[in-house]
Amino acid sequence: MRVIAGEARGMRLSAPRGTTTRPTTDRVKEALFSLLDSAHWLDGARVLDLFAGSGALGIEALSRGAEHVVFIEKNRHALVSLQQNLLHTRFNNRAEVHPFDCLQALERLARHKTQFDLVLLDPPYQAGLHQKVIELVGATLLAADGLLVAETAARMPLPERIGPCIQTDRRIYGDTALELYTMEQNHAP
């Protein structure tokens, strides 16, 4: 696993051992960040990386110009890799790591009225959390002109509308789908 482009290009990232985390493949990561770069979503962005694992997606965002990334990850093995990767890439000063369950972390961020330009969501596919998390993020944390990207199993499409969020694109890469959501304009927080 490596950083594909930007300031930390080519740097290797560590991943936790075992099967409790599923890193995004380089192919999907490359496609995602090409899409984000072409639309200038990363320049100075405030990013939320949910179910961050090793932090590969958030670190790629930082490498490509994001201002700040908040990482949410509760698995202690993944947290060790995430912290090592932030130190290795020297992005620890532009990052916050919250070692909590995703739903607890979202409640804490909502209480502080934190807003994000880009939200990266990659929960375990079978956990059934996509819709609940998208609804919570849309209700409180996604900026009015923000973008939420959910990684899902291609065979399990998400609804076109979840709470105040509307799907604007769905791209399939083998067994993986990237589903992009923006805020419905009359529901922006």
From TrEMBL:
Q: Which PROSITE patterns match?
A: N6_MTASE
Gene Ontology terms: biological process:
rRNA methylation
Does the keyword Methyltransferase belong to this entry?
yes
Looking at the record's lineage, which domain of life comes first? Bacteria
Gene Ontology molecular function: methyltransferase activity; nucleic acid binding
InterPro entries linked to this entry: DNA_methylase_N6_adenine_CS, RNA_MeTrfase_RsmD, SAM-dependent_MTases_sf
Gene3D superfamilies linked to this entry: Vaccinia Virus protein VP39
List the keywords (alphabetical): Methyltransferase, Transferase
Q: Which Pfam families match?
A: Cons_hypoth95
Please verify whether the record's keywords include Metal-binding: no
Q: What is this protein called?
A: 16S rRNA (Guanine(966)-N(2))-methyltransferase RsmD
